[in-house]
Specification:
The structure holds two protein chains of two kinds.
Chain A (H helix, E strand, L loop, with lengths): L1 H38 L4 H14 L4 H17 L4 H12 L4 H11 L11 E8 L2 E2 L9 E6 L4 E6 L5 E6 L7 E7 L5 E8 L3 E8 L6 E7 L2 E9 L5 E8 L4 E7 L5 E7 L7 E3 L5 E7 L7 E7 L5 E5 L5 E6 L5 E6 L6 E8 L2 E2 L4 E4 L6 E5 L5 E7 L3 E8 L4 E7 L7 E7 L5 E7 L7 E7 L5 E4 L7 E5 L5 E7 L5 E7 L5 E6 L6 E8 L5 E8 L6 E6 L4 E7 L2 E6 L5 E7 L6 E8 L6 E5 L4 E8 L5 E8 L2 E11 L6 E3 L5 E7 L5 E6 L5 E8 L10
Antiparallel strand pairs in A: 1-49, 2-3, 3-4, 4-5, 6-7, 7-8, 8-9, 10-11, 11-12, 12-13, 14-15, 15-16, 16-17, 18-19, 19-20, 20-21, 20-22, 23-24, 24-49, 25-26, 25-48, 27-28, 28-29, 29-30, 31-32, 32-33, 33-34, 35-36, 36-37, 37-38, 39-40, 40-41, 41-42, 43-44, 44-45, 45-46, 47-48
Helix pairs in contact in A: 1-2, 1-3, 2-3, 3-4, 3-5, 4-5
Chain B lengths: L25 H11 L12 H4 L46 H4 L2 H4 L8 H8 L3 H13 L7 H6 L8 H11 L18 E2 L5 E2 L2 E2 L9 E2 L21 H9 L19 H11 L9
Antiparallel strand pairs in B: 1-4, 2-3
Helix pairs in contact in B: 1-6, 8-10, 9-10
The chains are: A mainly beta, B mainly alpha.
Amino acid sequence: MKHRGTGWLLALAAAATLAASDATTEAKIMMEAARKKEVVDGDLNGAIKQYSEIVARYKNDRSVVANALVRMAECYQMMGDAEARKIFERVVRDFSDQKEASGKARTRLGTPSIPRADAMAARLAWKTSALPCCGLAADGRVLVFIDSAKRELGVHDLGTGADRALVKAGQTDPGNFGVAAISKDGKTVAYGWRQPPVRGGVRLVNVSGGEGSRTLFENADLNAVEPRDWSFDGKWIAAELRRKDRTAQIGLISVSDGSLRILKSVDWRGSRGMYFSPDGKHLAYDLPAGDNALQRDVFVLAADGSSEVAAVVDPNDDIVMGWSPDGHYLLFASDRRGSFGLFALPFAAGRPDGAPLPIKMDLPNPAPIGVAADGALYWKSWVTDANIGVVAMDLGTGKLAGQVAKPVKSFGANSFPIWSRDGKNIAYVATRGDGFSDPSLAILSLDSGRVTEVRPRLEQFIPYSWAPDGRSVAVVGPDLKGRYGIHQVDVRTGEVVPIRFDDPEDPTGFFAPEWSWDGTKLYYSAFPVRSGASALMERDLASRKDREVIRGRYFAKQASPDGRWIATSRDDGPGRRPSVVVVVPTGEGMPREIFRVDTTHMVTSFGWTPDSHAVIVGKFLSGNPNDPQLWLVPIDGGEVRKLESPANVAQVLSLSPDARQIAFTMGHFGAAREIWTLENFLPKANVRK
Amino acid sequence: MLFAAIAIPLGLDLYLPAPEGNQLTTEKIELGRRLFFDRRLSHDGTVACASCHDPERAFSDGRAIAVGVFGRRGRRNSPALINRGYGRLFFWDGRITTLEEQVLKPIEDRNEMDLSLSDAAARVGLSTEEISRALASFVRSILSGNSAFDRYVNGDRSALTPEQRAGLQLFRGKANCVVCHVGPNFSDERLHNTGITWRDGTFVDPGAGQGRFKTPTLREITRTAPYMHDGSIDSLEDVIEYYDRGGNKNPGLDSELRPLGLTSDDKRKLVSFLRSLNGKQKL
């Protein structure tokens, strides 16, 4: 018994040891997972959550808790959150027996960049579906925005939350709003105005209203003028000019007489931010690092054009955010630590005066707005939960089969899915930045579930159609030289081969290129602005010759599997929306109308049944894409059937070649922008050196 | 007028880059001007920079291939020295990236001036660095702008004739010239293989490799014939013919080159437009 009893005790001790060992191993694994979340994924909030769980679960293991607390505090520190100081102080106070952890905490508490409890604070100032513009009144109270749906330019009071329209684009004054900037005194808004067919200019409007707008500057050789910032004395507007030769220039427009000084010619893609220094002597902006580079660097140009300094030049993506009110710091966002964070570059005597100071990590998708006189920084961030959804469908019953699957797991927006013709892959656009900036072409393999991404050398693009050989897709968008057109993108290498460019003297919109089934032709819609002679076009890819197939405003397209037809939608009424479905023969014969929707709906996407006998039509309520309907429409006049459609569809649908699955963009695509402000973040004077 | 040293003509950027150690001054520009015309900088005292870069020809020389001391023939055409202050690459093959470095090379080149830099410095009583900075400053001051084209895009819609306006549209559209000849200086400052050097299945002159040469400016173009890096095309009409047929096909031909399908009317309009690129001021 004794032996057995001893054995039992030994076994118990061994089990306890093993359990302790297991717990230690488990804690280590959890710490490693949290560390991975923090360092590899750059998800500081997620890491903090995991460190918190470790602290709670292993509360009796002082070593584990102390280490987790230090890591958690460091995450808060990178986010500029005052919670960091509290946690470091707790570690020093309560875990002095944990020499390494408490030593680290003590060291960190001596670091100037640890915010005090009464210091840095980031808060959401406004969430809007409108497009907030750059520039900020000095009091930080009023922001300019453009409401595309209402075709209005307005101001938003961040204090009261009230919106007020300043200018409405109307029938008597045709044109489109461009970028706008508000004067530092908050009294005047300068906005870009583009008159059809193409004439760029700047107009001024008083915020107090009353007098209407007046043209300050315009030039027929400019596609667009983008006012970016007002000088503090209100005499100059820093603007970016987009010329018809697809170059961009930075210039100053005199507010008194509208004269223009061209300071510098820059890459067509231009800057994301442009800010006068408080003394008015300098202009800071960011530019692409090279002709083919996607990353940006930050430069500071003397406002009289006499000199320029490269302020932030490195392999990372750097975006200028503004100046500190005293002009001692140039603020920029950089992804140098894996994800975007805010940095302050000391600046004196017209040049950088020291190394950048990290201010706040975790600044997702920052698009600059400006800095108010009290030092509060404002930026906007694009909010999206758009992702690819796939659901099975039974054409026989017309019902969906099973739940919607989300086969893509990644952050940012994933949209515009298109099914390859062999049914094995889905191509889509993956964006990580603001809106459509910096898009990648992603290919989801349905066999392996793997996603590969390539970065075509295009400024922006939307994919429309796979080539029949599965090696490339046809996309529409501007290249890095600003040439808008149809391009062929290799899905393995991202190599871009232009198919057709528009003519800058006769701008033409292109839409929905669709490969013929044999791959020899490409069908696309052309919308020439000047002539207005829109048409469905056919390009012979070998001879590069174009042929007008049929005149009219045609939109989405899908080639039939038997190669005989192109299903497409046509604008057929005052609503100027695709409301009629026609099938156009690829050979001889006449187009045939097969389906029509009322004026409140529009047709945005198509699929074919494998036997080419029927078209599956995606129909949406105009202005409310989250209300899809699917209809099965036989092309030879059989019964039209409504099919069950998935909910939460943000964009067009793509049907698998066997017509058994639907891919679509789910969620809210570009539904909102958040305006954030960061206060009390500027380094104190005694911290500078 | 933002620079004390020089006036920037209409159409060019006010910001004229200059390295920190060689900011523009009137004194340096004048010294550089004197050196530019100084034959002592050549081995036998017969050739100055201006011998191949004649101000009357927009700082080119009218020959297909440059001729240096003792009648030695160089390899390439003397490029027009216009608006080089805005340049990023120098020489036809773009092998040099600063004007300060570039201006010394012809002095040393055996087929051009054939003089060691130390001898050059001794002859003019300046250091090599002073020669470099002064010559670079003078070259930076050679600016061409305020052409009919510049006045047109600045708002004077009568500055171009209807034919020239049609030519501008072709230049930016169907003829695709603007893909390389872009910006205020009508050059993307990049290297391209246009096929000029491809003959009998080989690159007669590889340039920067694969037959690539830097895009030259088109400003003052009527004064800088003959054309191309080897001066092999005598007239603007022939240059347009060359590009209309898509250049000489070769393994590295720039993907932007393709047959353009220009009509004779198109070609005449293009030439007419190119004639609008001469500046008003004397260079």
